[in-house]
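hey team, just a heads up i'm posting the complex here instead of the shared drive bc the drive is being weird again. everything in one block, sequence lines first with there labels, then the predicted structure for the whole assembly after. its two chains so it's a bit long, scroll down
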Amino acid sequence: MKKIKKEITRLSFIMPALIFFCFAVIVPFLYGINISFSNWDGIAKNFDYVGLNNYKMIFKDKNVWESMGKTIYFGFIYCLFNNSLALFIAILVSRSFKGNKISKLLFFIPTSLSAVLTAFIWKFIYSTYFVEITGMSNPLGNPDTVLNGIIALFTWNMVGINIIIYSATLVGIPKEYYEAAKVDGATVLQQFKNITLPMLMPAFTVCITLTLTNGMKEFGIILSSTGGGPINASELILIYIYNNIFSYYKAGYGQAIAFLFLIFLVIVGMGLSKLFRSMEVKA
Amino acid sequence: MKKILSLLIVFIMMLNLAACGNKENVSEDKEDASSQTSTEKQKDNSSNDKVKGEKEITLTWLHHFEEEGMNNWVDEMVKKYEEQNPNVTIDIQSTGFDNYMTLLKTKIAGNDAPDIFDLPTLGANLDFIENNYLLDLSDSVIAERLVDSALDGGSYEGKLYLIPYEQSGFGVFYNKDLFAKAGIEEVPGTYSEFIEALKKLEAAGITPIGHAYGDLWTLICDFFADSLVSQAGSVEGWHDKIVSREIRFSENAGGIKESFERMKERYAYGNSDPFATDWNTITNKFANEEIAIIINGTWTIDACKTINPDLNMGTFAFPYSEDPEKNKYPLGATSGFVGFKGSNNPDEVIKFLEFLTEEENAKSLAESRKTLAIVKDISPEVDETLKEIVANYINQDKVFSISNVNRDLPGQFQDKFYDYLSEYLLTDKSVEEILEELDNEFDRLAE
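-- predicted structure starts here --
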């Protein structure tokens, strides 16, 4: 009896958070799944259930697969670009030199800007300085370069977070390892490969998993910079879902794609973090 | 005892938080509470009510007007109506056009629909009629007041649902001074004269046309200036038939192939990076006399003259044909106000909409919107450039009415159509290939 009472007391502490979570996440989520089996047009009061029709349609819709391909490209290139840049900057700023604190701060400033503002700033940079300095045309206006253009500005916006994580981990690597390596005559490159990289593994797990999934589910920056154009070249899956729900009057279909995409993201995220965890060294 | 007490406190805390989490219930509670208080108020005011004999009404009006003139007009109308009807309060809600439709649909789905709102066209938003969301205005005095083109544009299957707020059209807007500088003496009346003019402008070192395809709607309007007259003018119901697959692109229905080719030909005379340039940049360049031509809708006049009021600007119909008689000006009244059928006070909504079409109010609307009037027998003070449309086209019977033309293709068809048009402009694919692909895409979407 006493034990049960204790359990209830414990449980009651998580109840507030749990109830909030239910109403803010679980209920809308279940309602969304419910809609994905219907032909709801987004505004009507009533709708009919159409069984698995929406899901069957996804496999016939080549737009879904095209935008999925772009999404995966965007996610991977963004992840690669963001993480290598973040690691590079983190190694630079975690050395002790005069002004390393201020430079850390400077690299973090873009992260505090919203997606809309970032898109606005970069649309301006691309259409003026970029064209004048490089002589190339604006990357956002050309279907072949638009995704890379967005990846660049999105990285600029988000790289600060990864820099913080990497530099915090770098600071935590014991100096003794490097000293011992120096005594053994290891080169800088060998030190990086055999000490820094393995010791950074926990940071890789977090950063790579998060940047990859965040990249694939990015919506705001694309909507505010190109809206999916030109010629749908930047129409990632989330933009396509949004279009279905809000512009094509196919909310049920959009929900169905969104649900499948969620499953895909969960699998990718869990798979990646499991893979990286198994590669981590226990220090 | 202490434990029980602490447990009790925890539960009380939890209840509070739970109430915060359950947003819906809270708002309902609030509504109940507010309705209670308002009924209480009504009870309190019952003596006053007997004097007034009317209950308090609040109407909400959602709009997306960003132009200052139009916003002032909205404020003015609300103020005037509230003065005339002291029991009515009108709550204005506004947003930008980009998320206007999303917000509107979310509000309707969430049982929070505005009483008065506007739709860009009736034809592309038939869902609103099918779901029975729009008030039927056929029996009100509004129907008698509207000019024919406005009545056409606001009706569907014989019933009036929408009150257009402007007569607008698509054409070529040009800078007269730059034309003179390039040695173009006459307004081009045929297609070859138009191309000739573009060549002269280019030779004089002026960027002939400003394209702002970074905002996709400008591509659509650019295409409309040609296609509405050439396609809809040659095949009745072109836009509906192409969706129902009665006519096909590859069979060159309504001369679509030539429209595409003309589009690409004039695309070459545009600014650099057209697909990365936005509307504001182009109107600014036009207003600052860096660009000679914009092909778009009649609102271009207001947009450019707000920046440079002294701009010497003219307009003519896009000369798609070699026969000057065929090059009519596409004009119509499609965007307009509607009332929400599920409103708590439908009669008051209709009354307010009637108020908007009263002579004086319609006149001030036309003047603030800088557009042609939609109500009969009023002559608002309009802009010089608009007067050219009246003198050269309306009075000479050279107008092509687009009020009845369902110019927007439904949802995904529209997006795909302009995707392929953009692809044609940006790549080396031949027009035949593009039209073939368009047919395949439309076949798939029509399934």
